[in-house]
Amino acid sequence: MQSYTADVLVIGSGAAGLMAARAASDAGASVLLVDKSLVGRGGATVLAQMTVAVALGEAEPDHPEVHYHDTMVGGRGLSVPEIVRVIVERGPEVILEVERYGVNWARTPDGRHAQVVAPGHSRRRCVYVDILNTGGATSAGLRRATFRDPNIRRLKNVMITRLIKRDGRVTGAAGFAIETLEPVSLAAATTVIATGGLTEVYARNSASANMTGDGFVLAAEAGAVLRDMEMVQFFPIAHLHPPLVGLDPIMWDPFRYKLGGRLLNGRGEEFLHRYTGEVAGQYTSPRDQTTFAIFEEVNAGRGSPHGGAYLDFRMVPEDKLREAFGPVIGILRDNGINLTTDMVEVAPMAHFHIGGIQVSAAMETTVPGLLACGEVIHGMHGANRLSGNAITEALVTGRVAGETAAKARGERVDEEAVRRAAQAEWDRLRTFWHPRPVQRDDIAMMQLKQELQRVMWADAGPLRTEAQLQRALGRVRELADACRDAALAQEGRFPLHLVEKVELDRMLRVSEAIILGALERRETRGAHVRLDHDATWDTPKSTAFTFDEASGWRLAWLDRI
Predict the structure, then answer these.
(1) For residues 332 and 339, is the Cβ–Cβ distance under 8 A?
(2) pLDDT of residue 213
């Protein structure tokens, strides 16, 4: 068994995890930074191409209080005020912090930070790194800030399968090293979950392949409360057709900001004004409303040939296109797309999970010794995430979580007890890998995963009904039985089939939570659209999920947001 000990254990190494490790080390704590892939190379941040919302006030007068108001309005009544406030108030601080790590935010000719407006924001407050490199540059800067720190030990390719508790407090985690297939014991006074989202459960998604909902399941199994799991954000104008290689499918958004690209239905008509009041040429509609509008046009028979809408830049002069798109013009040309003569087809795509682990303003969960940060938490976005708020949330909540976690530095943890628990988890995992009696040994995990993704997109996607959700729930539970009963061939090293089974098990669990919440929420609110319940409740209510090994998910309603 591989055994490690530190003051703080951080699980996940996107922007939130890297920032948590940096903050904990700054406070004098020793840190274990663990990821199931390469440290600092997985997750959503490295793929993000857009902007970061922060009230610097350099483009026009702005203030965190205005950012707070915009976010609360955008959240459709479900954002948690204390969470939103800490993020918007510390946003300027962390943006300047990562700039010191080499994240070169774009500047105006007079040296100020360049800031643009994004849908839902009332000010030009979104900073960025040109071109289409905001997330990559942020990840690179945070990697530089953590990789040479002797207080931070990095463990790559380690799959965490269980949080370990003693006397009601989380004291570490257990899992296995993917490269060597050895059990791993991780003892820590405080553990931070920073594993990102779950949008890999959908057939059409913008996530990296490792966004499989791990942190939600780990936290729930440890006794944490999850909130509003039914709230999934669908990015409205993800690339649909023609096939595009070498670019992120959600790359069109910043260019629509800059150039005012027109969104047209299959008849060549602008249509957003009929749903959102958007003025032609101005990109102002929030993502939930744009997603709904596109699907309504498709359902009415006015969609583009492949089931979406057209995005049109043909009215923009070629020199303006080249100035805005830069080298991307060449990649588009290699894909056979000439924006001066061609329209592209776009359609919604699963992009971000809005619900998640319940935390305090200090990023503490309901379980002592366990914190969470980044996309895995609940609170900032309510029922609709504003463009630009994701990386802000990751950076701020990561820093806050690291600061809070470091306060427990020096506290003793019974390392031997953690090792014993890790050994018990390893024994359980081997049974999970090869159940007895063997019921099925001919099922491919990838086949089950693709079926899950198809079911979730078809029946628990952007537009939902009771009949669809009930059908999805039944099928997901059938797939869960098939996953549990499937036996895998023994592997000595790099057990990819075991990794696939662990991830699929988690994807199935979080999918069930999404469906259960969507069934109970008999209203339309933000990203959650019930075609059979199109009214919005007068009083916002939040779903709360707990998990029991014997009975599964339990759901309750909370009137207090």
Answers:
(1) yes
(2) 97
Measured CA to CA, the distance from residue 521 to residue 528 in angstroms comes to 8
Give the whole-angstrom CA distance, residue 463 versus residue 531: 6
* SS3 annotation, 100-166: HCCCCCCECCCCCECCECCCCCCCCCEECCCCCCHHHHHHHHHHHHHHCCCCEEEECCEEEEEEEEE
Tell me what percent of the chain is helix, strand and coil, each rounded to the nearest 5: 40, 20, 40
Q: Alpha-carbon distance 367 to 359, whole Å?
A: 10
Residues in contact with 196: Cβ distance below 8 Å, sequence separation at least 6, in sequence order: 12, 14, 16, 43, 44, 210, 211, 215, 374, 375, 376
Query: For each successive 10 residues of the chain (561 residues), what is the average pLDDT?
Result: 97 96 98 93 71 95 98 96 98 96 94 91 92 81 93 97 97 96 97 97 87 97 98 94 86 83 94 88 81 93 96 94 88 93 95 96 98 98 94 97 96 95 94 72 86 97 96 98 87 86 97 98 96 95 95 91 67
Query: The whole model's pTM is what?
Result: 0.94
DSSP 66-86: HHHHHHHHHTTT-S-HHHHHH
CB neighbours of 104 closer than 8 A, spacing ≥ 6?
129, 137
Cβ within 8 Å of residue 190, ≥6 positions away: 7, 8, 9, 170, 369, 370, 371, 404, 405, 406, 408
Determine contact, residues 221/352, Cβ cutoff 8 Å. no
CB 459 within 8 A of CB 468: yes
CA–CA gap between residue 372 and residue 360 (Å, rounded): 10
Dist CA 407 CA 143 (whole Å): 23
> What pLDDT score does 48 carry?
67
Crossing angle of helices 496-520 and 214-221, in 10° steps, is 80
Query: Three-state DSSP class for 50?
Result: coil
- Which residue in 544, 480, 467 sits closest to 512, CA to CA? 480
Query: SS3 of 470, please?
Result: helix
The phi-psi region of residue 395 (left if phi > 0; otherwise alpha if psi is between -120 and 50; otherwise beta) is alpha
420: tokens are 């014993």
For 520, the token pair is 């109970």
Q: How far apart are CA 190 and CA 413, in angstroms?
A: 10
Token pair for 543: 């779903």
Answer whether 464's CB lies under 8 Å from 518's CB. Answer: yes
Is 17 strand, coil or helix?
Answer: helix
- Cα-to-chain-centroid distance, residue 211: 7
HSE at residue 124, side-chain half, CA atoms within 13 A, is 11
**What are 385's two structure tokens?**
């995430």
The residue type found at 539 is T
Residue located via tokens 């200090």: 362
User: How many beta carbons lie within 10 A of that of residue 436, not counting itself?
Assistant: 7
- For 154-281, where are the alpha helices, taking DSSP H only? 214-221, 253-259, 272-276
| Ordered alpha helix ranges (H), 222-279 | 253-259, 272-276
